[in-house]
Amino acid sequence: MQDLSTLQIKGIKDPWKAGIAGGWNVIDGRTLTSDQTLEADVIIIGSGAGGGVSAEILSQRGLRVILVEAGKLKSSDAFNMDEGDAYRDLYQEGAMRANKDASMTILQGRTVGGTTVVNWTSSFRTPRETLQHWHDRYGVKGLDRETLDPWFERMEKRLNISKWAMPPNANNDVLRKGCEAMGWRWAVIPRNVSGCWNIGYCGMGCPTNAKQSMLVTTIPAAMTAGAVLVHSAQADHLLIEGDKVTGVAVHPLDDNKQRTGATLTLKAGTVIAAGGGIQTPALLLRSKAPDPNGRVGKRTFLHPTTFSYGRFDQEMAPYYGAPQSMYSDEFTFKHGVEGPAGYKLEMMPLHPGLASALLGGYGADAREEIAQLPNLTGAIALLRDGFHEDSVGGTVELRDNGEPLLDYPVNDYLLDGAKRAHLTMAEMQFAAGAKAVRPGHSHAGYYNRWQEARAAIEGFDYAPVITGMGSAHVMGGCAMGDDDQHCVVNADGSYKYLDNLYVIDGSVLPTSLGVNPQLTLYSLSAKNATALADKLTA
Amino acid sequence: MDQGLNRRGFLKLSAAGSALLATGSGLALLTGCSSNDGPAQGYRYLRSQDLDLLRPLARAVLGPAIAAVPDASADSALHAFENLLDGAMPGTRAALFQVFDLMQLAPARWYITGTWAHFADQSETELAQTLAHWSASDRSLSRMAFKGLTQPLFMAWYVEPDAARTTGYPGPPQKIVA
């Protein structure tokens, strides 16, 4: 039996411990109980892929940067690989975020380093098909692959991105074997890791600092260059004077994510919104930012993801080992870029909390199912949303208290994709030797043969909520492009209707990507932050 | 609590049809209609009426899972639930509490689960039948409520290390900080 519970992880240096001792300027919002004002050249709201990369580039060019993060500062010494602790401290809404009708669970990071601290390290360049679609449909100029490739190369080098060289874990080997048997394309996933221990806790904060997240790369570099980090502090609204942004009003938060009562006023000549999909549109909505065509928060995409569980006779230990190392693009663009929903095939790690929540059910059957976790594998299909006229994504709204809520109805376009993805995944898992397969649907049981599974899938009621769906990729809501009917941000990140405001994060994507987003966001952010640095230091 | 207002609110809600319910806006009609005496003794968020609702539900949903952990009870599951709620934002918790409040209303229970009786007044067998009927319902609100109530119970329970190990998961490596 695979058992890593006696493995000791020790001798790991926490870069934040040394950094803070060496003079990094870190302000803990929990300690702020009276009003304060700070000034800088650039304020960056959000410390994930967009904010982290921007902070490094701008501060190394000599600009005074304040980086604001709503989540806490937790780093390797505190990463104990406990699933519950991770959800509470590192995820939006304690991993209880969902769309408005609760049909999709949304896993998104909320900590210093953002989602890069909890993602599963898959790093892909933006597909050419996606970039061409943006050019043709949304007037996104100057973002073809030839222009972006040097930026991909730069960030691949910065974050040590390369194809995973070790053998895949048993869970990921299901994808390789299944696709091989079916004659479908498969390949090894490039990962942003350095000295990875291959233990499987990317989603809970890397305890060895192998994952090259913003927490251990760009943000430390920015801190060394003099940036100020304010964490546990929520950007409430932009300060707007006429048609200019002049700063941000920030609410420090206590340990219970409640306001301490103080207001931190941050003033700067340039403000970068980098809260990511959902948070950045919500900030603009709370700020009542000008938006003549009512586009802020619209077309928010999720790569709605469907599941299929394959049970094996032998132990698979789906909780251990690099969580994602194999993928298949056989079905990503199979029916055309703008056709029925395409999907990328990957695997997901299965730890007890998340696995039990996704498996669902109740009583003795649910217990019997989760008690076979060591023999279970989890295939996922990421549906490419936003490319077809019937796929308009979701809309970010504000709750009465200003918190964001995503209204994203699961429609027939997505449900058709979910059904086809269930068929594909079941066939793949049986081809890989699964003894039984259960599609991620409330009405599904385990089927012992492919023909039996196929007949069941053909007969299911494909409806929201009962069709298991989730998301770990929030994109869009402040689309970039020349098409003013859809877009609020220019391709360089500048906001169309306010001066001094830039959006450098996943919210600028006009559609979903068809690949895990992090490398796109690192590279696009590096490009736009560099151009901004050139402008500000000219 | 003004039951009359709640019933009227609920009837309006059911008449508006499942399309409205599916958007969740129906639930918002009930905002402010619930009694709120604060958390029950020993709890940080759950009110005494929530415990009456969730204790029997936890037994029915998680019973065999709870039995697998020595000395655990339905209340252990509710405390685990509170640990999960700790991470949520106030708005997330408020939305969940709206579902709890809805389930306190007999007409809502009938519409959602097919049974008028409060969970606390149903025998183990009756509650099992209720769950069987409810989980198979084709009403949008029933599906939302079933997932909304059961999914966090599972997540909360199985992230607890003692419960996690009953799945066959040996647990994480040991992080040792010098």
TrEMBL record, chain A:
The lineage of its organism: Bacteria, Pseudomonadati, Pseudomonadota, Gammaproteobacteria, Oceanospirillales. Coiled coil: none annotated. Belongs to the GMC oxidoreductase family. InterPro entries: FAD/NAD-bd_sf, GMC_OxRdtase_N, GMC_OxRtase_C. This is GMC oxidoreductase family protein. Keywords: FAD, Flavoprotein, Oxidoreductase. The keyword Transmembrane does not apply. Residues 394-524 form the Glucose-methanol-choline oxidoreductase C-terminal domain. Residues 88-304 form the Glucose-methanol-choline oxidoreductase N-terminal domain. One of its GO terms (molecular function) is oxidoreductase activity, acting on CH-OH group of donors.
UniProtKB/TrEMBL annotation, chain B:
InterPro entries: TAT_signal (IPR006311), TAT_signal_bac_arc (IPR019546). The keyword Signal applies. Keywords: Signal. Residues 1-28 form the signal peptide. It comes from the Bacteria. This is Tat pathway signal sequence domain-containing protein. It comes from Alcanivorax hongdengensis A-11-3.
